[in-house]
Design goal:
Layout lengths: L2 H20 L3 E7 L2 E12 L5 E15 L1 H19 L7 E14 L1 H9 L2 E3 L2 E3 L2 E4 L4 E4 L11 H11 L6
Parallel strand pairs: 3-4, 4-6, 4-7
Antiparallel strand pairs: 1-2, 2-3, 5-6, 7-8
Protein name: Levansucrase
Organism: Micromonospora profundi
């Protein structure tokens, strides 16, 4: 990877970490197979969510080229990671959500389209994949209201918009 390509990506990841911290998330970096991955975590409880607690993880990694296959694989890996940490009691007034984000300099249109299609759902767990093109500042993700997990939709959209604004200004 060329340094001119990694500097904007690392800058975006650093800024994302700052946005997560400003919102009260615990933030750390982990090594995933030689790649430094940014991980943010917060838990929220609301009576209007049928008195449930939502564990929200934001997991962002650098990539030069983001393909649909790479995003699908990263989403599955991030979901497995989240379920291993907070998913044991999900469904018993606990839910988990994850924003698996690949941040790069080249985003294949199929990857952005897949991210915007909808959230990926498992029992009491949702993933809303994100692609970020640092060249344009565009963050593609599902920002709608799903049928499953609708009770969390406004909260997830708010957090997604705070951590990954649709277009950077």
């Amino acid at each position: 990877m060329d340094i001119t390509e990694t500097e904007p990506v690392q800058g975006y990841l650093t800024a994302t970490g700052e946005r997560l911290r400003a919102d009260g998330c615990e933030v750390r970096t982990e090594d995933w197979g030689g790649v430094a991955v940014l991980i943010g975590y917060r838990a929220d409880f609301k009576l209007q969510w049928m008195a449930t607690k939502l564990h929200l993880f934001t997991i962002a990694a650098p990539a030069t080229l983001v393909t649909a296959d790479a995003l699908q694989t990263f989403t599955a890996t991030a979901t497995d990671y989240v379920l291993a940490r907070k998913g044991q009691l999900r469904g018993l007034q606990n839910g988990v959500a994850v924003f698996p984000a690949l941040v790069g300099t080249q985003i294949e249109p199929a990857a952005s389209e897949w991210a915007q299609e909808g959230q990926r759902v498992k029992f009491a767990a949702v993933a809303r994949p994100v692609t970020v093109d640092v060249g344009t500042g565009t963050a593609s993700a599902y920002r709608g209201n799903p049928m499953l997990g609708f009770v969390y939709a406004a909260h997830l959209r708010s957090k997604l918009n705070a951590y990954f604004p649709a277009v950077r200004h």
